[in-house]
Amino acid sequence: xxxxxLIRIKVFQxxxxxxxxxxxxxNKAKSYLQNSVAGIERNFFTVLLFPIELTHFIxxxxxxxxxxxxxxxxxxRVYKNLSFEGIYDQMVQHDEVRRYLEKPAHRWQDHPETLRxxxxxxxxxxxxxxxxxxxxxSVAEQQKAFIQLYKYIVDESEEFSQEMEEINMLWExxxxxxxxxxxxxxxxxxxxxxxxxxxxxxxxxxxxxxxELLEKTVRHYKDNVELVAKSAPKWDKExxxxxxxxxxxxxxxxxxxxxxxxxxxxxxxxxELAKDYSTPQSSKFINxxxxxxxxxxxxxxxxxxxxRGMVG
Length: 312
Hints:
Elements (H helix, E strand, L loop, with lengths): L3 H17 L5 H36 L11 H11 L4 H5 L2 H8 L9 H11 L6 H4 L6 H17 L2 H10 L3 H21 L11 H17 L1 H11 L10 H16 L5 H15 L4 H18 L13
Helix pairs in contact: 1-2, 1-11, 2-10, 2-11, 8-10, 11-13, 12-13, 13-14, 13-15, 14-15
């Protein structure tokens, strides 16, 4: 499962490489994109399942009451809280999660020392201390804590990061969007809402969107560069940062060529990408240019939305 933000990131990277190439080839860009999408999918599945597999390991291998020594009340409480008894069954019995568990991208159970070490670190993690101190956390409190696990392992666990870097050398670039996608996936399970990009959007549909966005952005690139240049008269197009130009041409392509994607969704997504991949001032600059162009295109009836694309 990919969400659209991850797809846009991969298309952006493929386009940037395409435009930097001395002999650009759309087929080569597609191949780069396909490999990149496959890599981020593996990262997503690997991160998504880690806290679930860690919980399974805790429940089956680290029960302090089964040890020879007499466990303290704190040991028992921490174990119980990190066993997530109130939500574990809901997660592992979810159809989508079960499908991923049957064919994991990475078998965490084959790395018991990593699981054991991260468990020990979790018991001391500052962000979890309030949760671990509770005697009987509610389901809502368990859900909140489980979501925090993703933030801890991705943002703070050096051991987890080292493991992920061995799995995929692009991990450093992909860790934040993958973490966010994993958290959103779990929130959807807890809320009972359909998971965007899951059953209703298969891997094939993900790839179709990525390929179409790449092809159409390349096809309309020169025209969209001229649109941007005319909307930013104080800036020579050669002086606009390459990353900003790529993001703006992608945004214009999506706005004009994908009628079912709402305008606000497209604008917000590319502003967020600008914050992550361009200069500190880029988001404000891109917002100003795109806002002006949206009004211009609407006045010319060149920005027609249908269905859900009309919302917002």
